[in-house]
Amino acid sequence: MSENTNECSHDCGSCSSKCEKADLILQQNEHSNVKKVIGVVSGKGGVGKSLVTSLLAVAAKTRGNKVAILDADITGPSIPKAFGIKSKAVGTDIGIIPEQSKTGINIISVNLLLEEETTPVVWRGPVISGVIQQFWKDVAWGDVDYMFVDMPPGTGDVPLTVYQSLPIDGIIIVTTPQDLVKMIVTKAYNMAKMMNIPVIGIVENMSYAQCPDCGKKIEIFGKSKADEVAKELNTKVLAKLPINSKTAELVDIGSVELADETLLQPAMDSIIDFTKE
User: Fold this and answer.
1) In a 3-state reduction of DSSP, which class is residue 43?
2) How many CB atoms lie within 10 A of CB 253?
3) pLDDT of residue 146
4) Which of 15, 47, 138, 217 has the fewest CB atoms lying closer than 10 Å?
5) Is 33 part of any domain?
6) pLDDT digits (tens, 9 = 90+) for 180-217
7) Which residues lie closer than 8 Å to 120 by C-beta, 6 or more apart?
8) Please, what's the b/e burial string for 20-42 (b: 16 or more CB within 10 A of its CB; e: otherwise)?
9) In 10 A of CB 69, how many CB atoms?
């Protein structure tokens, strides 16, 4: 914090203030015990960030962990639909009770609070940021080994709120094999570094399509650039996910838990190893 102003620049990396980032972290609800928090981010929309969040949660659950998803994409929430959740979260004396998926993944999303899932969320940044904070401190999450936070694309108010208010252990950056990937991934990477948030690695979605007859991999969106970008940023590629019509169909019918998450098991290995350090 500057000597001449009471406003924080949010750039923890270059800040000369003696304040500690930990002082900004919100306390959990007294009925919550969230051990590890992993942010799933992207520099732009439409890359499949919510799908990766969902599949990582399923991969963690498959290993016997207690898992939760905090859907921080307030204006574009899609997690409840992917898991087929139509009931609404309710408030009690101990806090808001998250909904559970078929396999027991705890989930909170703004769509679980709205009367209609198609109701647009026309809120300004401070209101949206306040909702994110409520999702952390007012929800009775119970015991959670891994919480995945599905963040909106970009580097705006909500990612900033998540980085400052939640005890993020690390982030996964989701991207696709397109020419803009280097700039987009680098923006997300640099924001995390500015906020002193570790980057666990990159997941490239829609990396290729596989011929059902011969098994040949077809790079529909061009040659992958994930390895090149990861090398330049001194991080690693955790997974390259194919375009899969079956997975898309399962998401559409609310059965993402039936999708094949094996390609993300190595990414889950990396998350487990990273959070042990």
Assistant:
1) coil
2) 11
3) 98
4) 217
5) no
6) 778 889 999 999 999 999 999 999 999 999 888 888 88
7) 75
8) eeeeeebebbeebebebbbbbbb
9) 28
- For the domain that residue 94 is a member of, what is the CATH number? 3.40.50.300
Give me the sign of the Cα torsion angle 155, 158, 159, 163: positive
Two tokens, residue 217: 């991999």
Contact 134, 3 (CB under 8 A): no
Range of the structural domain that residue 235 is part of:
39-276
Total structural domains within the chain = 1
Q: Are 14 and 21 within 8 A, CB to CB?
A: no
Locate tokens 């590890």: which residue? 36
Q: Give pTM, 2 decimals.
A: 0.88
Comparing CA positions, the residue from 197, 192, 201, 195 lying closest to residue 174 is: 201
Whether 241 and 205 have beta carbons less than 8 Å apart is answered as yes
Closest Cα partner for 222 from 182, 183, 179, 180?
A: 179
**Do 264 and 56 touch, CB atoms closer than 8 A?**
yes
The answer as to whether 255 is a domain residue is yes
Residue 179 counted as domain residue? yes
With beta carbons less than 8 A apart as the criterion, state whether 166 and 25 touch: yes
Residue 218 pairs with which residues in a beta bridge? 209
Is residue 15 exposed (0-12), middle (13-18) or buried (19+ Cβ within 10 Å)? middle
Assigned domain for 29 exists: no
Radius of gyration of the chain (CA): 18
Q: How many other C-beta atoms lie within 10 A of the C-beta of residue 182?
A: 17
